Amino acid sequence: MRFLPDGPLNRALAAAVAVAVLATGGYLGYEAWLVDDPSCAPGVEQRGDQHECVGVTDGAYVFTDDLKQVSARIKAENDRVAGSSPVTVALMIPMTSAAPAERRELVEQVQGAYLAQHWANDERNKNRRQPPIRLVLANPGRGYKEWRPVADQLARAAADDQQNLRAVAGINISITETEQAVRYLTADKHIPVVAGPMTADDIKNTPADPRRYPGLARIAPGNSDQAGALGSYGAAIKPEEALVIEDTRENDNYLATLRQTFEKLTKGALNAPETYQSPPDFNDEGNLANDFHQMVPSICTSAATTLYFAGRPVQLRQFLVELGNRRCNKHYTVISGSHASTLMVDAKFADKWDALTTGAGITVRYTALAHPDTFGEKSTEAPGGSKAASKELADLLGEPDTKAPDAIGPADLRDGRVIITYDSVSTAIAGIRNQTVGDVKVPSTDDVVQSWRRLHGDNRVEGASGWICLDQYGNPYNKAVPIVHLDPAARNAVLDTLAWPLVHAPDANCSIGSDG
């Protein structure tokens, strides 16, 4: 609780109120007179209808018990480099969720960010350079509802020559609030941003609007790039045998661009898309299982055997369960976007894998943001990725030293969240360190923004998810797109093939073509 400010008048007032309250036996009245203290910890305070603790911490504050281990490692690493004039990178993602699957993904993203910090500062890293990296966790609240006050905190950290914040990384979902946060950080506060698993096509710089988000870099292939990769992989799919199932909910950039993408891929389909509308919170189960139950008979009577699902993972799970209960004996291939990877960590899907094997079976295929086998030991070394970068991350997770990154809690690379966030923070670090030449010890935020223009060719980032070559607008050029399917026997995602937005792999120099 927080009391009124000290002073003669307030002390007298406090005494008078206390006497009056005690005289009436009104302890509850005295309690109500006190003011609730919204502080959770330095830099973190309660906000919003749910009184969620949001703000920025160096790891000293733990947003949820799931983050306890990795937060402790971040705090220890920050303390270790504190006296070496570090620069700060912030991971800005929601740190809490009511949905267990989303909580698992949030932990993986914080783990990926810490692994990038740890390796950047590690003396064994042959590419280690100055300055040391300090990592902070910025929680904008569930659904990014409190993004504005947190963005203002980050802006103050960028102006503070003790904190020297030079980039914000993460940005993990494509919704209206993240678009607003990215625009505010880049256009209003001039802070560089490196988005992680954000794939909507309308939150990026383009030839038509090259300065919409000045300083934004994206490392994940957008929905249209994923569609290009799917188009080359699924060239044999006949439009008359395809059908789109789409979520019409508004204010979700991922859904909007996925709908557009799949409708283009199925041009000439015999049937109009089957539609539904999910609740405002896409993690809400709602009553959509009933909608899908009613939808399945229409799907069965259509000629479609390939179903493009433009929806979020909760609804995809519900749809697969109902499709698994169908009475028609047809095999279906369900194709979706990168967010489908959540099914692997969704506890509510854990006992539903059999839905993929009932009747004639269901193949669930999606474009992943990353997969450990893409450039793993058994992969074929080719332009577009690096076995060495993939091995670096795998080795970090396998170190036996209890002070090393394996103390961050259980981590799994298969759904790609650790990998893509590791690459997001690593790209931010590369942009910062590429500007520390000569007498420059701490680059300005404007210097870091300019560095995005150089991250291609020999200056590319050797990401664990593949080469990160940024075009003049800060977008990944012809980034590797793993196409995977869910294996009900292994209960995991299995790599089918590696595809490319431009159909072919990049050249050996990671050159940006004139079409980029």
What portion of residues belong to β-strands? 15-25%
What is the CA-based Rg, rounded? 25 Å
Order of helices and strands: HHEEEHEHEHEHEEHEHEHEHEEHHHEEEE
The CATH topology assignment of the largest domain is Rossmann fold
Structural write-up:
The chain is of the alpha/beta class and 516 residues long. The chain has helices at residues 8-23, 27-33, 68-81, 100-121, 147-159, 176-188, 223-233, 253-265, 288-301, 313-324, 387-398, 417-433, 445-451, and strands at 39-41, 44-47, 52-57, 87-92, 133-139, 165-170, 193-195, 216-218, 242-247, 274-276, 306-310, 332-336, 362-367, 461-463, 466-468, 481-487, 492-499. The protein has three domains: 8-37, no CATH class; 45-220 and 386-479, Response regulator (Rossmann fold, 3-Layer(aba) Sandwich); 225-367, 3-Layer(aba) Sandwich (Rossmann fold). It has an eight-stranded mixed β-sheet with strand order 1-2-3-5-4-6-7-8, sandwiched between helices. The protein has a seven-stranded mixed β-sheet with strand order 10-9-11-12-13-16-17. A two-stranded antiparallel ribbon has the order 14-15. A hairpin with a 4-residue loop joins β16 and β17. The longest helix is centred in the N-terminal third of the chain and has 22 residues, at 100-121. The protein is globular and about 70 Å long. The N and C termini lie far apart (56 Å).
